[in-house]
């Protein structure tokens, strides 16, 4: 396995207020490649030899609320939604298209402010969180949450960030 996984990111900025596309692409590439390498190393998660595509959508609360209502029957905005392109379980090799990660600007801004952390740090956390969902990780049960949050904490530490679950958990997807 190479030190850097081969990820192809497709970015879509659907509203104003996000950092510039080039800034988001640089940040997301660094974060998701670190997460992919960490996941492969720690869990022996196989990774395809060919590039894996991930779609990143940077949108607003109104758009994510509509998506959340349609796909999860929850008529409210949320911070991040992930949609795997194909069913995948932890430990499965990903296909050529991993899936979509959709993030909501206003919710991320509100949560970062409420948590007293920089917006970029919160965005990094939710990119990692959404990425793990694409690999089949979830937090519907305590056991699943323990595994997923443990991975998040270790990946974020590798990125130089503190444990986001030290006092609270804000993810509801």
TrEMBL record:
Single strand-specific metallo-endoribonuclease involved in late-stage 70S ribosome quality control and in maturation of the 3' terminus of the 16S rRNA. Its EC number is 3.1.-.-. The gene is ybeY. It comes from Rhizobium alvei. Binds 1 zinc ion. Belongs to the endoribonuclease YbeY family. NCBIfam families: rRNA maturation RNase YbeY. This is Endoribonuclease YbeY. Its cofactor is Zn(2+). PANTHER family: ENDORIBONUCLEASE YBEY, CHLOROPLASTIC (PTHR46986:SF1). Keywords: Cytoplasm, Endonuclease, Hydrolase, Metal-binding, Nuclease, Ribosome biogenesis, rRNA processing, Zinc. Zn(2+) binds at residues 129, 133, 139. It is found in: Cytoplasm. InterPro entries: MetalPrtase_cat_dom_sf_prd, YbeY, YbeY_CS. The keyword tRNA processing does not apply.
